[in-house]
Write a structure and sequence with these properties.
heterodimer; A: 305 residues; mainly alpha; MetI-like fold; 16 helices; 79% helix; flat; B: 450 residues; alpha/beta; D-Maltodextrin-Binding Protein, domain 2; 2 domains; five-stranded mixed β-sheet; four-stranded mixed β-sheet; 46% helix
Chain lengths: 305, 450
């Protein structure tokens, strides 16, 4: 009798323990399901319909199977946008990492005052909201009243229409400018972990600066480089506001990357279903990129062991 | 104990989260009116609000002006209309969106209501089309004003360039010729304004492109959309010629600077600053822009009646009937989500009554849509262009009010921008236009030019 009661007590207390262990996870799970999984599933579903922003397709969207995807992959505009996205991501990531590392490396050997000045200036660029940063650059580069042209005009140099001549290069430069601070912070921290003894030993062996960077520092901070490349790639893939404010994907479609293409189709052309298909494509690209990097990263880890 | 506290907290948190998700939004008690912000719409809406609230002291009218480009305005309103809790009760709606928004179920069918409204007979029938769905022929929106288009030019600049001040081109080439003369005689003056970019939104489609292609052989039916079978036309010569014309005037430097072309505020800049000061010689623009130059306008200009000339827009090579124009206009509709339909319709009729329609026509510079205003002497003396622009009604065309028109319009703007500021070839831009149009309308709703 008493054993039975004790048994039931154990069971119930285990149950309580199990519930109390699981329960704290519930809000987080709800959040992830509600704000992450459901929207993704909705986007995948919407991409299989002709859902519109207005017109009959807004009231009664029809299931159209893979039609959106067939259009997507047969339309040269998609491939153009993909190519531009690739250029945008590659050069932004390259620029941010190289410049971020260079400044971090140079900063390390500067005086304390210069160090904190550089860090402050860089962080300000990073903390400014992207819409504000975009607007500042727009007014800096725009043809009529742009500060850069006024500066050049002062020296009698012909005005340039920076945002028309090569809009893609312009948005890459702006994005690099804005993203450098992040890489600077990451590499700054990583460089502090490179022990002074190793560098000293290399110097005694006669290694120059160039050799020290490529032979010693970079291999040591390789895991950090990988993480930083992953983070900057994923952040760059999704850049929308900056490009939208500066060029809105134009002139024409000359700076139209995938996020801009997605927005244009969904909200300008009112093709929510088609826009969702582009969103799914963008999401897949992000996942492929991160899987690829994760794999690279794992290989790096196992070699370290 | 800790676990229990934690769990309790968790339960509370989850409950709060869940209730936040489940609790329905409160039904909107006040009558919410959404419109694209501008001084003249605000004036009309505020007048209507005062009149309406004196008749319905228990109802609070809330005006919600949206400051946005015409493209962003349409998108914002469409997004508001996604849910009953965010949809406004009364919607200021561009005529070309009525069919699409009616088909989407955003707008309430008011056919039976207008038929029993005594003033409805006073609205002229062409303008009524602007608020009628192309699909079912039912009325969804009350027209507030209409318009036609012409080429406005600064006579002082024309005189300086040695051009006649009673100028009237009869072909596109004569427009280019005048632009060439101005460019060579007055290098600081921008000869011509045509809206050609996404930034100018619907103005680019309607005032820029449709005013041209409606003047090519076969007009809009052969170049844009054929009302005989409701099919969109791709690969037409007229469309190609119009794009080529735009590319040429752009490449020859006859249009305003790229920065101005990319400015969403260009239309105001032209009407209120560049045309009056003579830095732009001519502009293909709507019949309403004179309203900015009156005493109560944004840019009063004393001598405008003497210093401004208006020419009809010629057909491509002077084909019959010789001239062309486009017409549109804004309307006022009520949402399907509005709880008290009688009340909402009462606001519509208040806003479109004779007094408010007159205010709208005067302040917005619109061509009045009520016949009882076209004989109103105040209106005719206040608007010296009324007679000229009303006479263009015989040449005018309406935009195809198919439900995907707003989407096609965005595509047209992108195509125009590509061949001008974007520097693309007409061939490349046209082939993208054709494939995107096919994508939007569906293959069965598109046909090649005959």
């Amino acid at each position: 009798m008493s054993a039975g009661v004790r048994g039931a007590g154990v069971v119930s207390s285990r149950l309580v323990a199990a519930i109390s262990r699981v329960l704290p996870l519930v809000p987080a799970t709800l959040m992830i399901v509600g704000f992450f999984l459901v929207p993704i599933l909705w986007a995948v579903y919407a991409s299989l319909t002709n859902q519109g922003l207005t017109g009959a397709a807004a009231r009664n969207p029809v299931f159209v199977g893979l039609e959106n995807y067939i259009y997507l992959f047969t339309d040269s505009r998609t491939w153009d946008a993909l190519a531009r996205t690739a250029i945008f991501v590659v050069f932004s990531v390259l620029g941010q990492n190289v410049i971020g590392f260079t400044i971090a490396y140079a900063r390390q050997r500067a005086s304390n005052l210069v160090q904190s000045l550089v860090t402050t200036v860089m962080i300000i660029a990073w903390v400014v909201p992207e819409v504000v940063a975009g607007y500042l650059w727009y007014s800096f580069l725009s043809a009529e009243s742009g500060a850069l042209n006024q500066f050049f005009g002062f020296f009698g140099i012909q005005r340039q229409e920076w945002l028309v001549t090569d809009p893609l290069a312009a948005v890459i430069i702006i994005n690099v400018w804005r993203g450098c601070a992040f890489s600077l912070l990451i590499y700054g921290a990583a460089l502090q972990d490179v022990s002074a003894e190793v560098l000293e030993a290399a110097e005694i062996d006669g290694a120059g600066t160039f050799r020290k960077i490529f032979g010693i520092i970079l291999p040591i901070i390789r895991p950090v480089i990988l993480i930083n490349v992953v983070l900057t790639t994923l952040a760059t893939l999704g850049v929308f506001g900056l490009i939208w404010v500066v060029t809105a994907g134009g002139p024409g479609t000359r700076s139209e990357t995938l996020p801009i293409y997605m927005y244009t189709q969904a909200y300008d052309f009112g093709l929510i279903g088609y826009g969702s298909a582009i969103a799914v494509l963008l999401l897949s690209l992000g996942m492929i990129a991160s899987l690829f990097y994760v794999r690279l990263f794992n290989i790096g880890d196992s070699r370290n062991d | 104990m800790n676990i229990i506290t934690n769990s309790a907290l968790t339960v509370v948190t989850s409950a709060v989260l869940a209730s936040a998700i489940i609790t329905p939004a409160q039904a909107a008690d006040p009558l919410r009116v959404v419109y694209r912000a501008s001084s003249y719409v605000t004036a009309v809406m505020e007048a209507a609000e005062a009149q309406f609230e004196s008749n319905h002291p228990d109802v609070d009218v809330v005006l919600e002006p949206i400051t946005a480009s015409s493209r962003d305005y349409a998108t914002k309103v469409a997004l508001m209309n996604q849910s009953a809790s965010t949809a406004a009760d009364i919607i200021y709606e561009d005529g070309f969106s009525v069919t699409a928004d009616a088909a989407a179920g955003y707008l309430e069918n008011i056919t039976t209501r207008v038929e029993s409204w005594e003033d409805w007979d006073k609205f002229n029938s062409a303008a009524k089309q602007n608020g009628t769905s192309f699909i079912d022929g039912e009325v969804y929106s009350l027209p507030l004003g209409t318009d036609t288009q012409g080429i406005w030019y600064n006579k002082t600049v024309f005189a300086e360039a040695g051009l006649p001040t009673d100028w009237q081109p009869s072909t596109w080439a004569e427009i280019t010729e005048a632009a060439k003369t101005i460019k060579s005689k007055l290098p600081d003056v921008t000869p011509l304004n045509i809206y050609v970019t996404k930034a100018s939104g619907e103005a680019s489609t309607m005032r820029g492109l449709l005013n041209l292609i409606s003047g090519t052989p076969g007009s809009l039916a052969a170049t844009f959309m054929d009302p005989a079978d409701n099919k969109w036309v791709i690969g037409s010569q007229g469309f190609r010629d119009a794009l080529t014309f735009l590319k040429e005037v752009y490449d020859d430097g006859y249009l305003v600077s790229n920065a101005n072309l990319q400015d969403p505020n260009l239309a105001n800049l032209i009407a209120e600053q560049m045309l009056p000061e003579g830095s732009v010689a001519m502009s293909i623009d709507g019949s309403w822009i004179w309203s900015r130059w009156t005493e109560s306008g944004n840019a009063p200009w004393d001598g405008w009646t003497e210093e401004v000339g208006i020419a009809k827009i010629p057909t491509q090579n002077g084909e019959a009937p010789g001239y062309t124009s486009m017409s549109g206009g804004w309307t006022l509709a009520m949402s399907t989500h509005t709880p008290d339909k009688d009340l909402a319709f009462d606001f519509l009729t208040t806003a479109a009554n004779k007094e408010n329609s007159l205010t709208y026509a005067m302040l917005a510079g619109a061509i009045a849509v009520r016949d009882d205003l076209m004989t109103n002497t105040d209106y005719l003396t206040e608007n010296p262009t009324a007679e000229f622009f009303s006479s263009l009604v015989q040449y005018t065309n309406f935009r195809p009010a198919l439900e995907i028109y707003p989407q096609v319009s965005s595509l047209v703007q992108q195509t125009m921008e590509a061949v001008t500021v974007g520097g693309e070839s007409v061939d490349d831009a046209l082939s993208r236009y054709d494939s995107q149009l096919t994508r939007m309308a569906g293959r069965k709703n598109v046909k090649g030019a005959e």
